[in-house]
Amino acid sequence: MNQPWNICIYVVGLALGTILAAHTDAARAAADPEKEALKQEMRELKERLGQLEQRLTEKERAAEEAAVAPAAAPAKEEVGIPDWVESIELHAFLSLGYVYNFNEPDSDINTQRFFDFRHNAFRADDFELSVLKAAKDPGSVGFRVDLDVGSNIPRTIHSVGLLENELDPVTGDVDFEDFDVRQAFASYNAPLGRGLTIDFGKFITHFGLEVIEGWPGYNDNYSRSYDFAFAIPFTHTGIRASYPVSDKLSVMAMIVNGWDQVDDINGMKGFGGQIGFFPMEGMSFYLNYLASPEQPDADRDWRHLFGLTWIVKPLPEALPDFTLSGTYDYGYEENLGGDDVEWHAAQGVLRYDFTPWFYLALRGEWMDDEDGVRIIPCLAGAGCDGFPAGYSGQVVWALTITPTFKVGEHLVIRPEFRYDESSADVFEDEGDDTKDSQTTLGVNAIYSF
Questions:
Q1: 73 found inside a domain
Q2: How confident is the model at residue 169 (pLDDT cuts 50, 70, 90)?
Q3: pTM for this one?
Q4: 18 and 145 both lie in a single domain
Q5: Is the residue at 70 inside a domain?
Q6: What is the reported pLDDT for 38?
Q7: Which residues constitute the domain of residue 52?
């Protein structure tokens, strides 16, 4: 649009230049050099005018061709990463530890300890790698696979029948390995009401206060309680359905092979469930149940387990950083060794968060296994004989103090002091003797993302 005006300006300039040149020639006829300069400027103006006319002609021709030419095809849309790939999560967890036993046992085994069973040795407790796609919304599907490798945790949580870990029907021993598939299940969030989540595969039990530590979270203490180690199962293989009835109530039901069994050791399944109750902010209660026959090739001798777990902030206004949590589990089994047997286990944890990067946890616990059917003084996978001579059962209690330091977003360091005492002389002492108590000092480092 500005090109004609430019031409006009140049034409007017040319005319003025001509008049000026004529005036100058008349006034200074003798000044030949100045006359030649004016002529040169006129020639340059004519040349520039011709270039402008040529550019204008080319633009008009291009506009006419564009008006009659077919519309150009739209550019191809770039191919991006599918949404289902972007929704897959990858997580990892690493736990390293060291424990010193003041009994200084000759076997270097910490009696009745589960994951931290080695004395005076640095250990790679566990490395967990997890891949998952959460079924968050009604109608969505997902999955989760957790793989574990390490010197402590994988060999003690194995399920019978997984990775050729067969149960010896004569001795009852299992050849455990340092590798385990902790969980492997598929999920479907059925579009019913608030969303009914159905999981099929191998998954962690719903019992107890403590968890098998991993990237989703860790416990308040490094060592595991008697309740976690001996009173309840670790994993189940089967199907479960969970439903959030409301913001204050949730329910879960499941049908599984039983306790820690990928291959069912008899022809009967286990049946269990959970009711979650959340009356107000800072209060959570879980009522758990499981019934299943757990003896090889015996479908009628049932094991029943009842449990109550709570996590409460009792003084939310005065002490908002104080948490009181705990659990109580009761089990009994029919016709085990010819008799009906039972066991009780309880623990309570007081935790206070002094700062966002430091908290202190004090755990007190008690377990009654007077029938001698649940507590194994030395785990078969730890490398010792199991029960001391003449063992018939015990009642045991323990006290554990764990300060925890958070270093940045991903690293946790926690030293720990623990004292155990039993009604029987079960704790190995120096010189291959046994005594009724055991004191340990440990430290644990966790990295996760």
A1: no
A2: low
A3: 0.78
A4: no
A5: no
A6: 62
A7: 3-61
